[in-house]
Amino acid sequence: MQNRWLVMILVLSLAMNTAVLATVGYSYSHNKHQPAATSGTPHEMRHHFYDVLGLTPAQMTKMTPMADAFHHRLKILHATMNAKKDAMIHFLATQNVDRVRIEALRKEMAAVQGKIEKTVIAHLLDVKAILDPGQRERFFGLLRKNMHQEPGMFIGPEE
Question: I need a surface site. Which of 22, 33, 84, 145 has the fewest CB within 10 A?
Answer without folding.
Answer: 33
